[in-house]
Amino acid sequence: MIPKIKREISFSKFLIAFTLTLCIFLIGVIIGNYMISYKLDKYNTYEQDLKIDLMSSEIENSLIAETGCNITNKLPLTRSLYDLSEKLSYLENRFGWDDKNVLKMKEYYSLIELKHWMYINNLNKKCNYNYTTILYFYSNEGDCPRCKNQEFVLWHLKKKYKNIFIYSFDINMDNLALNTIKEIYGIKTITPSLIINKKTFVGFKNLNEIEEIIEQIIKDIV
Known about the structure:
Blueprint (H helix, E strand, L loop, with lengths): L1 H65 L8 H21 L4 H28 L4 E7 L8 H14 L3 E7 L5 H9 L8 E4 L2 E4 L4 H15 L1
């Protein structure tokens, strides 16, 4: 009789353990599905918000371009580009820089940046403005150990000077317009790379070096 009682107790323990394990597994599945659903909902919300902001910036860019030399305040568009950049950075961190939808939105944003860059260059040429433009090429694929340092330098540069426009581009982005820019200015695969007032500089540049480059470019123009 004793062995039978032990077998019944062992089976009861096994049944309880199995039931608890199954419950934990099901709870995990339910929580996992909920988190996936929540993540997708958040992603869709940010995606829609970003699409609206991108379209607004594109329209704003076109409206400003029509005013020609009469425009006195380009700060709203600059702020819009900065806000969009922050949202894209959030989406990259949240869903991954290689997420296909994030890449599509980043590509669209890059085209808006190029349009604004062309507009500023046109202002400098036709209206005798002295804005400095910097196109910064980086890589997200782990092959650019100095990119974070370069971003910090550019951020500090932008805070220090109000007449500088900085545009950031993923060097690995396969886009016809961006590929044309890279071909024209000799941007290959080395990152970081900078195009400062239409002159190409490959490799990391510290704050003093960039300031000296800008100063020399201005002297050459004058």
